[in-house]
Structure formats: C-alpha cells, structure tokens
C-alpha cells in the first residue's frame, strides 16, 4: 500500500505544510519510503473545529451504532493485511510475532469497548422518582447520566505502534465514551499511523458518523501537540510517553482558561520484591524468569521490571547468578528509534559510572541501533541516598537493591515514587511479611501482582494500568481495560424534565 | 453546652496557640461567648500524622462498622439538641426553621452514605478469572477494587454551617469512602463547628475506630488551611467557598511533590432561561416564584438564580413587574458575616454604578448587618461585552439579560462560564427551541432543571452538584448525593493473589 503522507482532517486527506517527517528503519537508521509533512496551526484549528462540530451528534449516537463503529475500525485494521505489520516492523524494529500479537490486542481492545458500549453500564443511568406530596418540600424528579467530556487529544506512544497509538486504548476508550478524537501521531511510526488512521477514517464514513469524529495530525516537533492541548475545543488529553512530555502537557492544560484533565502515563521502574522464602526455594528460577521479562521487546515496556528489591544472602546470590547467566546469552535487540537507543545507552553508562553501583551482567553486543541488556546492583542505603537511581532507563536495564533485612526493605519502599506495578515473589512462609507490606504497596501502584512480572497487561474489566503520580498524572484512572472509558465522562443531572426533552437513554420505555 | 474553644486532634481536645477567633453574632456584630484559638503548624503536623496512621486500619473497616459509625455521628449531632441550633442561629443569622431543616438534611446525608456503604457498590469489585491454559499466553487472574485515596482535608463553607461544614457532605462522603478527615473549620461559625466536631470525635471513640480518623482545626487566617493542603499525608481536598479561595488551594495542590485532587465548589450565577411560550402564559407567576428563590436565605446559596435570560417583550415585562413588586415587599435579611454583607453591598453598588445596567427593583432596607434584595437589567450585547457582569454577587441580587431574539439568547449562552445549574422555564410550545439549546446547556452545568429554580439541592443518588470550571475545580464530580463518594477512591488491581493476601472484600465466599 502506498503511503500518501497526508494529514487526515475529518473526511479529507490533506497534504501538510509543516516540517518534514520520514519513517526511519529502526534497524539501520535509513529513511523509509513515504514523506510526511507536519500540520500547521491552521490544521489544528480545522481538526478541532470539526471535532467540536461532530461532538453533539457523535455523543448521542445510539449504543449499537457506536459499538458497530468500533468494530468497523477493528475490521478495517485487519483488512490492511500484512503491509501494516511490515511497515510497523520496519519503523519500530519490533519482530513480526510481537506486532501480530499487538494487532490482535488492538483489534480485541476495540471489540471489548464495543461490548462495553452495548452493555451501556458506563452511562451510569440513575433515576430518583419525584414526590410532589413530600413535606416540607416536594421531592423533585431527578435523572442522571454520564455524558462525554468533549473532543479528546490522543498522543500515540512509540513503544506500542498499534495498541497505544492511533487506534489504541486511549482512542478506543474516548470514542466509546462518545468523544471525537484528534490524534497527534508519534513521529517514530508515521507510516503505521497513516495506515491505521485511514482505517479509522473509513469507518467514520462507512458508519455515517459526523465528519470530525476522527482526525490525525503529524508533527516533527512539539508545537502542534501543544497547540492541540491548548485549543478551547479539546476537553481532555490521553498521553503515553516520557515524564517530561507528560508534565509539559499537564502544564499547558492547567493554564488554559478552562483547565482540562490530562491522562498521562509517564514513567515507572516497577519494583519487584523478592521475599526470603521464595528466594531460598527458587532464587535461580526467579532469576531466569526475570531475565526473560527484563529483555522482552528490548525492555521497551512501561511495565518493564527495572528494580529488584531483596534481602542480601544465598537466595539473592542464586537469583543474581541465574539472571546474569541468562542475560549474557540474550542477543542485543533493535530499539524503537535511534533517539531511544541513544538515551538507553546513556542511562546504562550513567549507572556504570555511578560510584555506588556495581554491574552484574551485560547482554550481548549488537549494532549501533541495538540495545544490550544490563543488570546492576546497589546497596539499599546508597539507593535511598541517590534519588537519581529511581530514574527510568527505558530499555532492558535492571537495578538490584540489596537490603540488609526486612526493616531496610521497608525503608527502600518508603523512598519510592508512584509506580504502575509492584510484583511480589513469595512462598507460603512469606505471607506474613508480605501482608505487612501490602498496605503501603497499595498506595504505591495501580496493580500488584504475585509471582510474576508486570510486562503482560491484560485488556479486561479488572485491569488497572495506572498508578500514583509520577507514574501517571492521575492515579484515579486506568489507561488499559474497560474502566478506561470513565476518564472521558462526567455526570449530568436532569431535574423535572418532560420526557420529550430528555436525552434518549433517560426516556421512558 | 459550654464551648471550650479547643482544637480536636485525634481523640484529644487541645487548646490552640495561634490567632484568636470569636464567634460573631451575625445580627449585631458582637462577639459571642467562647474564645477559639487557631492551630499552629505543629497542630497540622500532628493531625496529619494521626490521620495517616489511622488510614490503613480505617480504610479496611468492615462496611457494617463504617456505616454504623456514620449513623453514630448522625445520632450524636441530634443529641446535641437545641443548643446547636441556637448557636448556629447566632453565628450565621439564619432562622431557626432553616437550621432545623439543615440539621435534618445533614443527619439524613450521613444516613444515606451509611446505606451506600452497606450496599458496597462504591467498591467496584471486579473479578476476571484466570485461564492458565490460554494460548499464546496464560490469562492472569485479576481482581479489582476501589481503594480510599488517603486522608482528606475538608474546608467548611460559611453558608451551610451544618450541611457543608464539619460533618457535611465532603466529610460524610470522604469517611464513607474510607478516608480519614481533617477539617479546617470555617471561622464564621466556630462554636457550631466545635459542637459538631465533638459529635464526630465521640463517634470515632465509641465506634472503636483508630485515633486520627477525624480532627478539627481552627485558624483565624489562611495559613493553616494552606499548610494542610501542602502536607504530604493529605491526599485530597474538599472545599466549598469563594473562587479565590478555591483557586489558591488548587495552586498549592498542583505544586506539591505529589499533586492531589482538589474538589472545590467555587462560584456560579446559575442562569435561568425564560422561553417565550412560558413567559407569555405565566410571566407574572414566574416572576413571583423567582423573587422567592432569589431571596431565600438572603440569597446565600451556591445555586442562587443570579442571572435571568429572556427575550424582551410583553411576557418579560410581566415577569419584571411581578418580580419587582414581590421584591419590594421582601424584608432585608441578616447576612452570614459582616464581611459577606460588605461584599454583597459592594457588588450591588458596582451594578448600580455600571453604565450599561439599570436597576429594576430593591428590597426593603435593614440594619448594617442585613442585605436588601436587588434586581437589575442589562441588554444582551452589553452583557456579552462586559465580562465583569458574570461575577457572582453572593446574596439576593439578580441580573436580567434582555435579548432581542433567540439568536441573541444563543450568543449570551455561548459567552457564559461553567455553572452549577441552568434552569429552563418552558411551555409545551417552547420544546422545539429548548431542544436546540440543550446540547450546549449540558456542557455548561452539572444540573439542568425545568420550570423550577436550583436553590433546593436534593441529597440523593441522581443529584449532581458540580459543573464545569470555574463553577467547580473538577466538572467530573459532584459534592452532593451518593456519587460524591467516588471523588475519594482509586482503583487497584490484584493479579494472581493467593486468597489469604487479598483484601477482605475480594476474598472468596
């Protein structure tokens, strides 16, 4: 399929006139076919105006029609066929199997939200019957429903070119809630973005939905995304990316005449706590499993297990030895972009050069575009004293914090920032100690897991992919799973309304 | 009952050592019995430390125990007897009937949240069964529950000394959610606050709940409230008051190392839209009803109907004439505090002196501590051109915006800021025009009502007392009704947990 490099503004495909963007072959750094041109502020204005115009009709679409629209997007993505996978492979360096899996995840995510829309629970319909005879004052008739917030700006992530990008979780949940979406494509995979964007645009048109329900903008820099968040017609933001990027958007959103919510999933090092009983029994097994999780997808997951907390001793030695051996055999892997690769190498170099940090293992060397796994160790007291050791190194780098005892382990946990996940490796005889920690861990992360690693994020009703600041901008929400729809809704109450003036879902019958 | 003037910190009553506060007789400006002394930063630290220490146990109280605690608070408030009403009457100038009604509302609100806690729906329990056989990867077992955010700082409002104060809606919903509460009492009713604070403190002790579940602090200025919001152990804020106060707290909360949500209900002028059909048929009736709503409680309601939008003509003239006649007969009413009375007079004087504004009616004159009703009129174009005419004048002052036609009415609505309520007065033949406006009105306010005024705020499941910024800091929430509990919760997911380590509500059986 030929790429046009056009912006998708409402139902049109429009050549951009901003800065040029090229897809980059992640494995070689060479430019890929297709020339994308960035949007201008006039394009932002046009996309926002169309989204605003589409909003009243789109938010009142019948549930069945909205669900069918989400399913049509899923069908259209599948219909692109292998050219989508091939383009995504080239742009991201991710292997075929991973991207085929991610496509299925993206499609199933859209279908799950279609199901959620059909069930209609998100509307939170409430009915308080009135009572004109009540004393001392009559009781009014009250009806409540959740209403879509308004057009949502979605920022695609580099590390999930399908599942957290143009038609990923933020887009799916915002569309499900009844919000038009304007996507600022991630410039690391413009071709993948265009292909998926066309799939969404086609679904808008074939479903007879108002023009402006969806638009897709490219930008070589930050200006267009910032203009989008500042636009008065945009009413919420979904973002997955760096902490710096997320904080910048939060700042813009807070300074607007009407501030808007920003749901930014920013950074985490996802502590893994190894308890003494589990370490004693199967330290080496856990070490091998950890090495696998750390290096999955070149470690480029928000939920990558970057921090290991354990009490020093034989069990931890067995863990380290097994992890180190496994890591040594792991080939270097192509990273998503030259910039990410460079940042990873700098992060690893910083740890190597840190006075208090000791390197335990290194994966195999690769090309200039590849990252090698790395494992480090630091003493608990040094970790606590050096806050910079909590900075995420995006990629397959892990840091073991060796504690003298459980009391010191508690101290380390007390020093941690908000996280997406915390994993506990425990045996039956660790339960009592684990139970003591849980009240603190519940406040530290959105998801706690036992005897596993957080790298798999199931898309389902009970998932929470979120967590206290600074893991996300808003720890009251999740960006994965059906609960994500609630980010884009607000309650409205209708008092003493005649049936004919009520919104459809609140009418009789 | 003698007032001690003490701070209530955990289970203790402690003399404050900050600035002095006296209850002021609203009708005379004279100091009432009882000398209250403000908290120091050390008191804030102690209250926050106790709240933080209480949090793990309090948030895991069994639903029945938590519900019984809320009911015990209600009983203890009733048990204070008439001395509570008398003190509140003196401190606020509000009449007996109103305060007895407000006490019942406060008590019923606590009981309603007790019911909500018993039903347990707010926990949002979700269960996704795992499937170890699933290909290509096993499906994890996921369980979700809502968890309390942490200790909440509550700022009492001056205009509802019971229902939006020490044991008012914010406190009731935060305690229901499982959050300890530290109240910063409003200095306009310190005696009322102490009496209710002791009622809550007693309920904490008799219910065997951890010390620190509740504390009450006084302060003559702003410093203590600000220190409270800045304290790392406070995790959310409930506030009802001025826009300036709300914005100051939002700013402090956003600048913390870990930002926290602020639920501030700040200001509104609550537009009332009179449609041509309704005006033609019953303009005078609506005018009389409006005068009653405008002057209820000296107009000191967040939902006071401060703005009337209508198309100029005979119907509007009938409305104006009836409203003016009714208002002329309304006696001046004692206002809550000398400061509020002064601000009201200044607001009215500003309208009187405004070039584009014409006074239509004035209520009867009263004492220095009383406010007289006032009604003004302005042309739509002038209203749009003068943004300052949207500023709330807290008290019984209303402004009629006369439009030439429906198109101009639309323009006025487009120029309005976020509101708590919008009221529509319509007849059957106005339905078509009203329907055209509704999509815009839904975005303007949290509650829309037909053929009534917003001054009564029912405490029930379908109520929304909230609305887009700047009516509140967060239009996704309500501060009245059972939905208010959701402000103080966040979802947490437990993956592959052994039953014994799960929190109680997620365990088997």
UniProtKB/TrEMBL annotation, chains A, B:
Name recorded for this polypeptide: 2,5-dioxovalerate dehydrogenase
Alphabetically ordered keywords of this record: Oxidoreductase
Database matches in CDD domains: ALDH_KGSADH
InterPro entries named among the record's database cross-references: Ald_DH/histidinol_DH (IPR016161), Ald_DH_C (IPR016163), Ald_DH_N (IPR016162), Aldehyde_DH_dom (IPR015590), Aldehyde_DH_Superfamily (IPR050740), ALDH_KGSADH (IPR044151)
Gene Ontology molecular functions: oxidoreductase activity, acting on the aldehyde or oxo group of donors, NAD or NADP as acceptor
Domain annotation Aldehyde dehydrogenase: ranges: 34-460
Taxonomy, superkingdom: Bacteria
Keyword tRNA processing: no
């Amino acid at each position: 399929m030929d790429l046009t490099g056009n912006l998708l503004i409402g139902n049109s495909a429009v050549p951009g006139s901003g800065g040029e963007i090229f897809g980059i072959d992640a494995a070689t750094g060479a430019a890929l076919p297709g020339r994308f041109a960035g949007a201008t502020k006039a394009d932002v204005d046009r996309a926002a105006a169309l989204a605003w115009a589409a909003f009243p009709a789109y938010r009142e679409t019948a549930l069945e029609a909205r669900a069918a629209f989400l399913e049509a997007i899923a069908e259209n993505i599948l219909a692109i066929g292998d050219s989508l996978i091939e383009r995504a492979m080239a742009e991201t360096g991710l292997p075929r199997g991973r991207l085929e899996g991610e496509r299925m995840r993206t499609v199933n995510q859209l279908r799950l939200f279609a199901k959620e829309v059909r069930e209609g629970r998100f509307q939170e319909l409430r009915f308080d019957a009135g009572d004109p005879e009540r004393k001392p004052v009559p009781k009014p008739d009250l009806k409540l429903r959740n209403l879509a917030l308004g057009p949502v700006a979605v920022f695609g992530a580099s590390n999930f070119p399908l599942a957290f990008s143009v038609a990923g979780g933020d887009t799916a949940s915002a569309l499900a809630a009844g919000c038009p979406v304007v996507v600022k494509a991630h410039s690391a995979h413009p071709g993948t973005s265009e292909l998926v964007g066309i799939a969404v645009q086609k679904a808008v048109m074939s479903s007879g939905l108002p023009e402006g329900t969806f638009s897709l903008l490219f930008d070589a820099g930050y200006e267009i995304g910032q203009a989008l968040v500042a636009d008065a017609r945009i009413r919420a933001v979904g973002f997955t990316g760096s902490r710096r990027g997320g904080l910048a958007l939060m700042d813009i959103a807070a300074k607007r005449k009407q501030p808007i919510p920003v749901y930014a999933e920013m950074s985490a090092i996802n502590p893994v706590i190894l308890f003494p009983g589990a370490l004693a029994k199967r330290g080496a097994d856990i070490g091998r499993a950890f090495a696998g999780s750390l290096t999955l997808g070149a470690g480029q997951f928000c939920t990558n297990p970057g921090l290991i907390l354990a009490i020093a001793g034989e069990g931890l030695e067995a863990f380290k030895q097994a992890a180190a051996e496994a890591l040594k055999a792991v080939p270097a892997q192509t990273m998503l972009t030259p910039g990410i690769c460079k940042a990873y190498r700098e992060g690893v170099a910083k740890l190597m050069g840190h006075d208090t940090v000791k390197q335990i293992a290194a994966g195999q060397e690769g090309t200039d575009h590849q990252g090698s796994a790395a494992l480090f160790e630091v003493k608990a007291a040094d970790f606590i004293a050096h806050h910079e050791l909590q900075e995420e190194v995006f990629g397959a780098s892990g840091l073991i914090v060796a504690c003298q005892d459980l009391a010191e382990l508690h101290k380390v946990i007390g020093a941690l920032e908000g996280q997406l996940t915390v994993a506990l490796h425990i045996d039956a005889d660790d339960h009592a100690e684990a139970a003591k920690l849980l009240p603190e861990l519940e406040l530290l992360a959105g998801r706690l897991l036992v005897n596993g690693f957080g790298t798999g994020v199931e898309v389902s009703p009970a998932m929470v992919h979120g967590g206290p600041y600074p893991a996300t901008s808003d720890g009251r929400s999740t960006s994965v799973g059906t609960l994500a729809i609630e980010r884009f809704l607000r309650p409205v109450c209708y008092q003493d309304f005649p049936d004919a003036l009520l919104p459809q879902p609140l009418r009789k019958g």
